[in-house]
Amino acid sequence: MDDCCINKTCAIDGLRERQSATLRIVLLVNAAMFLVELVSGLLAGSVALLADSLDMLGDALVYGFSLYVVSRGPVWKARAAVAKAAVMGLFGVFVFGQVVYKLLYPQLPTVEAMGAIGALAFAANGACFALLWRHRAEDINMRSVWLCSRNDLIANVSVLFAALAVWMTFSPWPDIAVGALICAVFLRSAFLVAREARAELGLNHAQPPAAADAPQAARR
C-alpha cells in the first residue's frame, strides 16, 4: 500500500473533488434560476418572484464561497460559513422589508406567474437538495450549503401554497403571510450557521495556527 493511501491523502482529495463537482452544479443551477426568476418577476410585476430571484442570487454567491474554501482548512470554512450566515441574514431583512411594504401597500400578485415559476424553482432546488444530501454531514462548509438548499425548498413550497391561496381568496394576505414565514426561516438559519461557525472558530483559535489551518480530515 503506497504512502498516499496510508496518509489518507487519496481519500481527502477524492472528497474534495466530489464536493467541488457538486458545488459547481448547484452554482450553475442557482445562477440560471436567478436570471429566469428575475426576468419573470419584472415581466409579471411580482414582488414575490423578484424576492425569490434575489434568494437564488444569494445562494449562487454562497455556493461560490463554499467552492472557494472546499480545499482549505476548517478556519477558512468557518469564515466562509460566517459570510454565508451574513448573506442569509441580509435576505431575511430584505424579505422583512417586502412584508412591511406589502402591509402598507397591498397588491394582488400574478397567480399564474407565481405558480409556474414557483414550480420550476421547486424542481431546480429539489435537484440541488438531492445532490447536497450526501455531503450535509461532511463539514461545516457543506452543512451550511445544505441548509441553504433546504431553506429554498421550504420557500418554494410556501410560494406555491401562497399562489393557491391567493387564487382561492383573491386576497394578497396569503402572499404577505408567506413572506413573513420565509423571513423567519432565513433569519433562524443565519443564526444557526453563525453560531456553529463561531464555535468552530473558537475551537481552532485555541489550537496552534498551523494545526488550525490544516484540513480537518488530515488531523484525524
UniProtKB/TrEMBL annotation:
Where does the UniProt entry say this protein principally localizes? membrane
What name appears for this protein in its UniProt entry?
Cation efflux family protein
A single GO CC term, please?
A: membrane
- Could you tell me the membrane topology recorded for this protein? Multi-pass membrane protein
**Which stretches are transmembrane?**
25-50, 56-75, 82-101, 113-133, 153-170, 176-194
| Pfam families in the record | Cation_efflux
> Which keywords does this Swiss-Prot/TrEMBL entry list?
Membrane, Transmembrane, Transmembrane helix
Sequence ranges assigned to domain Cation efflux protein transmembrane in this UniProt record: 24-201
The record's listing under InterPro entries reads:
Cation_efflux_TM, Cation_efflux_TMD_sf
In terms of superkingdom, the source organism counts as Bacteria
